[in-house]
Design goal:
6-stranded parallel beta sheet, alpha/beta, Immunoglobulin-like, Rossmann fold, binds alpha-D-galactopyranose, about 20% strand, single chain
Length: about 675
């Protein structure tokens, strides 16, 4: 079941860009709540996510509902002009339910149930949990329907963040039913998974279990278990959404994804069509020196999942997280740089976890818009400044990210397949190559759409297939058609190796793209971290090599020594429509990749968004009428960009060149 909907017509929950965060007033006294509202007005907050963990407040005892607290909060927020993204409380199982039904706890691969407490303590397949969850959702939706504060529904919280894989008896039954539905016969399962290996052939569906324990399971079975687990969680989302749509048909419904590099716990790209607004929680990893680029990658993926349209940054951190080994705050100005970077890449919101830092509980040291120090703090000052700055950007609401000429294909299933079963190198790193390529383009101010592998590719000049280990016949055809129509394709090592069943495509690697690339790979030869190979054009390969033969491709670079001396490493096949299909059979080191990126950008005729100094991120959002250039100087030195127009943040007019202080942001309305 999927809801027919048109995201373009979905009303955005706020008039301007949404600004606010998770609000958990049940943790605070009335006095603090009243202070919160005053501070929210001061900061310009216009949307808060309410009630994420409030099940026990709504239903303190089995079947006894009390909505007086939520009524009071909705009224208070409404009186203060703040719209509400109201959560269904199903991420937080009340203790009375755990006591009455311990069987709803998810079980790990060794059959150990999780302990009550924490959050998401439910098995995605449990009909008992589903019954209680839908009952509270129904009661809540019926009760609040029509309240003018409610602008958006937030189903549960971060689906699968803790309960994504369950091995309890109910999940086992559900897995078997899912397989019956998908394959119809047990012979089809045996054949898809290749169960003849090790004599693991099944005689009936009853013999199949979830891949649990320490056994080395079949790669096809492992992959299908990942798909099943994502689908089991999606059933819960759909069941809740159906109730919400019945009571409040005009209120958009979403849930918060956790999109980073991938693969993710659930298959977000396949969930996205079920969302009225696609929303993301994004947390940078403090010690990552390139966290800004990982942030950009996730924004580019979000846009890829929202058909290029606006998406919602539902949560990010004002400062430090608390789950890393060492949690460092953001540097001076970084809060604003991160917020604007999300907006630059298509978000129409800047939302945080959370409004006020908690005194107690697991996340008592997680940063918030109002820190423990209170109003008189650098953090809150930054928040107030950001809120004010964002009000100058309302005219950007109706624009989308523009001038994108490059697509990277991404598929969660490829990432799952890569970590399912043993590989030539068992350090699964699905998105490593994608990230390295993205970084090379990011540094050159070339915007990339990171798109699901099946979206239409016309309109792009270059399509990169970065480490797409699994590729269906359809994906292979789709990519080949793009190249044959004149596009440039770059396929990187260990792409197109298996089909949708995680079965090797034989006859020469990379099976799915072999003909397009005009090559035939015979053996993989991964490298240790200490090893590297030199190519005859001066490039260097790390991590990966293979014994490759060219069938009808030009050899751009060959191995200059070692066991593969003289063998092709980088090839290019000219396609009939004037396009080109490149194959990189080695993982290029950073200088070589930079050289390659510069070359491919020039050859494919890709024009950067702007000419900028090193460290300046440039992204354009535009509509038919107007165009805005977002410039973010991540460097700690003065930078610049060649652009003309008016900076929405300062009102300053620029002619030809925009100077950017170290760490500064500018949003230029271009002429
Ligand atoms: C996630 C959750 C929040 C909170 C934050 C902390 O995004 O949705 O409830 O735990 O992480 O960073």
């Amino acid at each position: 079941m999927s809801l027919p909907h048109d995201r373009a017509r979905t009303a955005w929950p706020t008039e301007g860009l949404s600004f606010g965060g998770d609000y958990n007033p049940e943790q605070w006294s009335r006095e603090v709540v009243l202070e919160d509202l005053a501070l929210m007005r001061e900061a310009g907050v216009n949307l808060v996510t309410l009630g994420v963990f409030s099940w026990v407040v709504h239903e303190p005892r089995d079947g006894e509902f009390d909505f007086s607290w939520i009524d009071g909060m909705l009224d208070l927020l409404h009186e203060n002009g703040i719209r509400v993204d109201l959560a269904t409380p199903t991420a937080a199982v009340p203790m009375w339910l755990h006591l009455a039904h311990p069987e709803i706890l998810p079980q790990d691969a060794f059959g150990h149930p999780l302990a009550p407490g924490g959050r998401l303590g439910w098995c995605p397949s449990s009909p008992v949990f589903r019954g209680y969850a839908l009952r509270v959702v129904e009661a809540l939706a019926e009760h609040v329907a029509g309240h003018p504060a409610i602008a958006l529904w937030h189903v549960g919280n971060e689906f699968g963040g803790g309960n994504a894989r369950c091995h309890c008896p109910v999940s086992n039954d559900h897995f078997r039913a899912w397989l019956r539905d998908r394959y119809t016969s047990i012979d089809a399962v045996n054949s898809a998974w290749g169960m003849a290996f090790w004599g693991n052939t099944y005689s009936s569906f009853d013999e199949i279990t979830t891949p649990s324990g320490a056994t080395a399971h079949n790669p096809g079975q492992l992959l299908d278990y990942e798909r099943f687990s994502s689908d089991a969680l999606l059933e819960q989302y759909r069941a809740e959404r159906e109730i919400l749509k019945r009571w409040t048909p005009d209120v958009p419904v979403t849930t918060n994804f956790m999109v980073g590099l991938g693969p993710d716990v659930v298959d977000y790209a396949r969930w996205a069509p079920e969302m009225d607004i696609v929303a993301n929680d994004h947390y940078t990893y403090g010690p990552d020196p390139l966290r800004r680029q990982e942030l950009a990658f996730s924004g580019d993926r979000m846009r890829g999942m929202s058909d290029g349209g606006p998406w919602m940054l539902m949560e990010h951190a004002a400062g430090a997280a608390s789950w890393h080994p060492i949690n460092q705050p953001k540097g001076p100005g970084e809060l604003a740089r991160h917020a604007f970077a999300h907006v630059a890449r298509g978000s129409n919101s800047v939302m945080f976890f959370q409004w006020r830092a908690s005194r107690s509980g697991t996340e008592q040291f997680h940063s918030a818009m109002v820190p423990h120090a209170g109003r008189d703090s650098r953090m809150f000052e930054d928040i107030v400044r950001l809120g004010a700055d964002l009000t100058h950007l309302d005219e950007v609401m109706d624009t989308v990210v523009a001038d994108v000429q490059v697509a990277f294909l991404h598929d969660n299933e490829a990432g799952w397949a890569l970590k399912s079963g043993l590989k030539p190198t068992n350090q699964p790193s699905y998105a490593d190559t994608a990230r390295a390529f993205h970084n090379a383009f990011f540094d050159r101010a070339v915007t990339v759409d990171v798109v699901p592998a099946w979206v239409p590719l016309d309109g792009y000049k270059l399509v990169v297939v970065p480490g797409l280990f699994l590729a269906s016949e359809e994906t292979a055809r789709h990519v080949a058609a793009f190249a044959e129509a004149g596009g440039t394709v770059v396929v990187t090592w260990f792409s197109g190796i298996v089909d949708e069943h995680n079965t090797v495509i034989t006859g020469g690697y990379p099976g799915a793209f072999r003909e397009l690339l005009g090559v035939r790979g015979e053996e993989f030869s991964p490298l240790t971290p200490e090893q590297s190979v030199d190519l005859d054009n001066g490039w260097r390969g790390v991590r990966w090599t293979e014994l490759l033969r060219s069938v009808d491709a030009d050899v751009v670079a060959a191995h200059s020594g070692g066991a593969l001396a003289g063998r092709p490493a980088v090839t290019r096949r000219a396609t009939t429509g004037g396009g080109a299909a490149w194959y990189l059979s080695v993982d290029l080191d950073r200088p070589s990749l930079d050289d390659f990126a510069a070359r491919i950008i020039a050859q494919a005729g890709i024009v950067p968004v702007a000419t900028v100094s090193p460290g300046v991120e440039a992204v354009r959002r535009a509509s038919a009428e107007s165009s805005y250039l977002f410039l973010i100087n991540h460097a700690d030195t003065e930078g610049w960009a060649d652009a003309s127009g008016t900076d929405l943040l300062t009102g300053a007019a620029h002619e030809g060149r925009v100077a950017l202080r170290a760490g500064a942001v500018a949003v230029i309305r271009e002429r």
